[in-house]
Amino acid sequence: MGRRYMSVRFESDAYFGIIAEEAKGGLRIIEQRRIEAGSENLSENGFDRDALKRLFADANVQEYTVVMPYQEVLTGILEFPLTDRRKIENALRFELENETMESPENLVSDYRIIGHQDGKTRVVYYAASRENVRKILSELSTIAIDPAYLVGQQNLYSGLYRTVFEKNQAGSVKLFLDVSGELLTLSFVDSEGLSFGRVLRIHNLALETQVIRNFIVATIQYYRIRAQKEIAETFIVADDESQRLVYEILTRDIGLNTISRLSFKDSESREIEPGFVMLYAALNGRVELTRRQIVNFRKDEFVYKGEYDFLKKQLLKYGIAAAIVVILALSLTVYKFRMLKKYDEQLNSSLQEVTKQILGKPYDNFTTALAVIKSKTEPKNLSIPTNSAFDYFMFFSDAFPQEVDVNIRALEIGDKKIRMEGETDSFESVDRVVNSLKKNSCFKEITKGKVKKSPDGKKIDFDLSITPSC
Question: Is 459 within 8 Å of 429 (Cβ atoms)?
Fold first, then answer.
């Protein structure tokens, strides 16, 4: 018997799981499980623990893949005028904060490069709250389950890219449209197996055709603009009734061509129910793909314990590497000590020069020099600012345009800089604010920082940096 795997996902009214084992030519499906879940007596993490236990009962598997609830995974596509991976990673932290409105320290995130062109790099990112990851792993630990992979629903169809791509289709994109339960999942997979997806909750497919149409159109347009790629073929994963409705929306209202129902070559895989296809794709990706395609949220402090088993087998190699690191660290310490000593001598020399100019006598000890300066300083010679922070606040209030509707989120008044963050209704309103403030002679030097649309597109976010001239 080959190695067994299980992947699971959670919906509000049911938990889904599929068990498969490695076999010649791929995976052999052992069991498909659907466990009804209630909304009462939920655990502190929001799970029906009894349903959870039944889902994993007697699974007899060696490795688990757990799909995070779709609403807890954020995904998008960004473009950077960079090609250096390290610079991209540094810029991504800043962009993630703008995209998700969350501090990067509160997120577990990963990204994949999906294209380079004209010195620019396009990446698709996946992010989840550390707290949500912690809750899921904590809940699973109560029933002794430790998943090796914690993945996003939007990334699962990467696992089927070798199933639907021919060798001569480099650069093309396949769209998977999955209707499972109350969820509509769109997943764009390129010929490298890299994917981007979005999910919509639906209650009645037949009654929400306009909402579904708008969601599909908006998601396709977003992918085309951000990824700069076109869809070559679309696969539908749904029951007969849902497939008919979705096919009609795609052909009549959206105008997509080359649409078919997703099918598998072997007879056993053809027996997979629509609600389990993405779970099968997750397992297929786990067995056949590399980490380049699969985005796993088990990283940083959430790293899978099984990773340590591999490290044990590589003990000798890592021991030698650690010894080399220690030697290099010691060498670096000696080098830094010498450089610090040299730097200290330079500081002492500079201190002597400065104190000779100011005090008429050189001092090589900072404490002594500071004591001499204090003893020679009288209160009458101290400089008192002409205007206080309150004065600048009043200048700011008097000069601010009354006709412009501005929500000021932050106003920081320092001795050399005034900084304001806010939002208004248009770019013109930002210019009115700047022009009005410049009418005050103290606010001649005003620099606009980031001026951009807010995440919902309804407002303009901006910040101003003012150097007082009074």
Answer: no
CA distance 57 to 37: 15
Residue 289's pLDDT is what? Answer: 80
- pLDDT, tens digit, 9 for 90 and up, residues 416-459: 889 889 999 998 988 988 888 888 888 878 888 888 988 888 89
Interior angle at CA 284, CA 283 and CA 290, nearest 5: 100
What confidence score (pLDDT) does residue 310 get? 45
Query: Left, alpha or beta for 277 (phi > 0: left; psi -120 to 50: alpha)?
Result: alpha
Residue of 296, 234, 403 lying closest to 67 (CA atoms):
296
Amino acid at 115: G
Token look-up 């008097």 returns 398
| Spatial distance between the Cα atoms of 328 and 316, rounded to a whole number of angstroms | 18
**CB 8 within 8 Å of CB 279:** yes
| Residue 83, number of CB atoms within 10 A of its CB | 12
SS (H, E, C) the chain: CCCEEEEEEECCCEEEEEEEEEECCEEEEEEEEEEECCCCCCCCCCCCHHHHHHHHCCCCCCEEEEEECHHHEEEEEEEECCCCHHHHHHHHHHHHHHHHCCCHHHEEEEEEEEEEECCEEEEEEEEEEHHHHHHHHHHHHCCCCCCCEEEEHHHHHHHHHHHHCCCCCCCCEEEEEEEECCEEEEEEEECCCCEEEEEEECCCCCCCHHHHHHHHHHHHHHHHHHHCCCEEEEEEECCHHHHHHHHHHHHHHHCCCCEEECCCCCCCHHHCCHHHHHHHHHHHHHHHCCCCCCCCCCCHHHCCCCHHHHHHHCHHHHHHHHHHHHHHHHHHHHHHHHHHHHHHHHHHHHHHHHHHHHHCCCCCCHHHHHHHHHHCCCHHHCCCCCCCHHHHHHHHHHHCCCCCCCEEEEEEECCCCEEEEEEECCHHHHHHHHHHHHCCHHHCEEEEEEEEECCCCCCEEEEEEEECCC
> Cα–Cα distance between 292 and 463 in angstroms, integer?
38
CA atoms within 13 A on the CB side of 15: 22
CA dist., res. 53 & res. 13, Å (int): 15
Nearest residue to 159 via CA among 176, 179, 137, 142: 176
| Inter-axis angle of helices 130-141 and 49-56, nearest 10 | 70
Between 414 and 5, the higher pLDDT residue: 5
